[in-house]
Amino acid sequence: ALFSHDAQRVFDDIDRHFQLSPETLTELTKTFLDEFRLGLGNYGHAMAMIPTFVTGVPDGTETGTFLALDLGGTNLRVCEVVLNGDKTFSLRQQKYKVSETLKTGEATTLFDYLADSVDAFLTENTPSDPTPHHRLGDPRLPPQPVHLGLTFSFPVEQTALGAGKILTWTKGFSAKNAIGHDVVKLLQDAFDRKHMHVKCVALVNDTVGAMLSRAYTAGGCILGAIFGTGTNGAYLEQVANLTKLGNSPAAERGGYMVVNTEWGAFNNSRSHLPSTPFDNTLDRRSINPKFQAFEKFVSGMYLGEITRNILMALIDSAPKSLLFNGKFTAQLNEQWGFDTSVMSDVELAWEGEKGEEPGPEDKIPPFTEFDEEKLSASVKPRLERIKHVIVRKMGYEENDVTLKDAAIVTWACSLVARRAALLSGVAVAAVLVQTGRAALPGSERHANGTSEEEKIGVGVDGSLIEHYPNFERTMRESLRLLVGEDIEKRVEIGMAKDGSGVGAALCALMATKQM
Ligand code: ADP
Predict the structure, then answer these.
(1) Is the minimum distance from the CB of 317 to ligand 1 under 6 angstroms?
(2) What range defines the domain where residue 181 resides?
(3) How far apart are CA 351 and CA 256, in angstroms?
(4) Within this chain, do residues 323 and 183 fall inside the same structural domain, yes or no?
(5) What ipTM was estimated for this complex?
(6) pLDDT tens digit string along 77-86?
(7) Whose CA is nearest to atom 15 of ligand 1?
C-alpha cells in the first residue's frame, strides 16, 4: 500500500516508473539482440531461438485440404482448412474449452481430450455437400489417414517438422508428465488409442503459423508475431547464423530457416526491464515467478493484473484512499479479476466513436486539482462513458464512482498498455536489425541485399494488437525511435487471420511433400 500524504507525488511516482526513455528502449533492443545471438548459438538459454525446420515461406499457390488443431491460447480450436492456391482459403472451425483441471492435470488426459475434440469435430461437421477437394472425415469415403498440423504454442525443442520435445509450459498450463516428451507422439498416441484415422504430420508454433499464413495471403512476410494471451515472434533467419544446428543435415543444406524466438522469455535471468512494485507483485503470485519476464510486461494475460495491482494500491493507500473512496469489489479484489479487455473498453470509451477522437486539448486535469464542474465539454462525456464501463465491468454501483475515479482508472490503463506497446516495438526492431533491414541509433546497418524500397511484411495475431486502441500506433512510435521513420514506414503490419489454422495446414502440406 502507498502513503498518500502527498497525493500528487504518489501519482507522479507511479507514472515515472512506467516511462521508457528512447535510451532505455535502445539499450533493451541491444540486449534483445545479444540474447538472440546466444540462443542461435546454443540450447539452454533464456531466449530459446528454436529451429522450426520450416525452410521457406509459401507464395500463395499452395493447395490441399488439412485438419489443424490449435492448443496454446484461451480456447482449443479444431479446423479444416482448404487452401485454394490463389492466396485464398476456406476454413470451418469449432472451439472447445480447456478447463483448469485439464491444464494442470495429467498430460495423457489432456491429449485424450484433444483427440476427443478432433473426433467430435469430424463427427459433427460431416458436410452434406462435399467439395471437389473432398471434405475430411466424410464417411462415404474409404477411411484414409487425414493429415493434421498441430499448432502448439509452447516452447518445444523441435527436431523435425513433425517432432519436438516440450521444454516448459507457459500461460497457465502445467500438465504433468509432458515436459521432455515428444508432443506429436503424445497426440498421435491419443489418436491411436481411439483408433482414429488421423495422422499428425507437422508441429507448428502459432508465431510460425502467423508468418506462414500472412505469407500465403499477402505474399511475403519476414516476421510472425503474437500479441494475445502471451507474446512471441518467429522470423526467417539464415541457417549460417543458426550455429547450434552444428553439422546436422539441416545445417549443411544452408539457406534459410524460420526461427521461433520465444521472446516472451527475454530478461528471465537478468534485470534489464524496469520492473515496478506492481510487476513484482504479479510475478511473485504467478505460477512461474522469474520466467516469461518480457511476456509479463507485454501480453494480454498480464496487463489487466498489473493495472489491478495499481488500482488496489491506490484503493489501499493511507491515511487517505486515493481511489473509489477505499471501496473495493469482490471482483477487483481477486487475482486476475480485472481482464485486459476491460482496459480496452476503458480506452475505447475515452476515444469515442469515429469523428470524436480526443484532440490534444482533451487532457485529464491533474488529479489533485480535479474539479468535476470545470471539466471541458469534450472531456466530461468521455469520463461519463468510462464511469459506465467501471460500473458494468468492475462490479461498482453508480454512486461509488466519481469522474475523478474514472480519470484515474483511465490513466492507469493507458500507462500499462503504452509501456507494453513500446516494448513490443523493441521486439520487432530487434528482428529488423538481426535480419539486416535496420540499424539502431548510432550503429551501421549490416546490409543483407534487400532493396531499400521493399515492403517489410509482418504478420500479427492476438486480441491485444487486434483490439487494443492505439496499440499498433504506439508500437510504431517505438519502432520510429529505434530504426528511423524510413524503415518504420516500410513495415507493413497485417493481421494473420486464422493464422494458426492456415499455418498448420501449410506446414502439414510441407511435411507431406517431404514424406
Ligand atoms: P489467444 O492468444 O489465447 O489465442 P487472444 O488473442 O484472443 O487469444 O488473446 C486473449 C487475451 O487477450 C486475453 O488475455 C484477454 O485478456 C485479452 N483480450 C481479449 N479481448 C481483448 C480486447 N478487446 N482488448 C485487449 N485485450 C483483449
Answers:
(1) no
(2) 57-218+498-510
(3) 43
(4) no
(5) 0.98
(6) 999 999 999 9
(7) 300
